[in-house]
Amino acid sequence: MNVSDFKKTALIYWPVELAEKEKLSSIIPLLIGTQESFISILRIASKDPFSWITALELCDELYPNLFLKHLCVLSDIGGENLKRFSSELSSDFYSKDFEFIFRDKIYQYQFVSLKNRATWNNRSLGLDGEGILKPCSLSQEIRDVIMLIMFGGLATSINVPDEIEEKCIIGAMIGNIRLLEEYIKHRYIWVSKITGGAKSNKMGQLAQEYIREKLKVYLPEWDFSRKSIPGISQNEGRTLTKFDIVGIPPHDQPPYWGIEVSFQFTTNSVVERKGKLARDRREILNRQHIRLLM
């Protein structure tokens, strides 16, 4: 089959359903697109530590869970951090208020959701892949987490974990517009760089799953659940070589098929790694009469 024949049946571009799944998994464009609105809210929310609530209500472009997502990304706080914080802080703030200093004044705040024994996580806060695209109202949980991330570093209590003191520092910059804007834009440059590899990895996983599902439709008697082939190793048998997809024929009889999935968007490190492994894998497989598809 030549290239012209292949084009007649091949998909030249990503299928729509795969593109939609990838869109759900990538929030960086959404954050970049609403960055100015996010900065604007913090810029005008300097009267007191609760001014952001009114500012957020007046903003059409941002909604509470997206505003919170901005704070989480900038502070490098993920779902596991939030889950741990809710567990660690619940005992401290069950019977007393959170006290902090904002612009030389002392304020108190009640973490109501912690008093109710709530567990903070990405799903309940609307921060997961699908949830972030659906506007949430300003629930008590979202309000509490926003207050913690913005002002946790300004706490007067010695019981606040070091991680909160180090990461929850955005509130300390409110009122200093220049410092705030520089910090946010610098952080987003950093975030964009580190998420490039994650985006490539996520897209690769989506492509693999898409191809696996198609193979299961066309070859229903085959097994595509494995990642390795018996007897194929690149380290003298200590571990089996991993493939993106392995095709096992009916009755588990050779020949097996090792399938490597590649796509247009990738990073240099992925290209180098794949290229380095490809020749060795092909030689090993060919000696045992096993097909490798790439």
Automatic annotation (TrEMBL):
<dbReference type="InterPro" id="IPR058974">
    <property type="entry name" value="RE_BanI/HgiCI_N"/>
</dbReference>
<dbReference type="Pfam" id="PF26568">
    <property type="entry name" value="RE_BanI_C"/>
</dbReference>
<dbReference type="Pfam" id="PF24447">
    <property type="entry name" value="RE_BanI"/>
</dbReference>
<protein>
    <recommendedName>
        <fullName>Restriction endonuclease</fullName>
    </recommendedName>
</protein>
<feature type="domain" description="BanI/HgiCI C-terminal">
    <location>
        <begin position="180"/>
        <end position="288"/>
    </location>
</feature>
<feature type="domain" description="BanI/HgiCI N-terminal">
    <location>
        <begin position="13"/>
        <end position="175"/>
    </location>
</feature>
<dbReference type="InterPro" id="IPR058973">
    <property type="entry name" value="RE_BanI/HgiCI_C"/>
</dbReference>
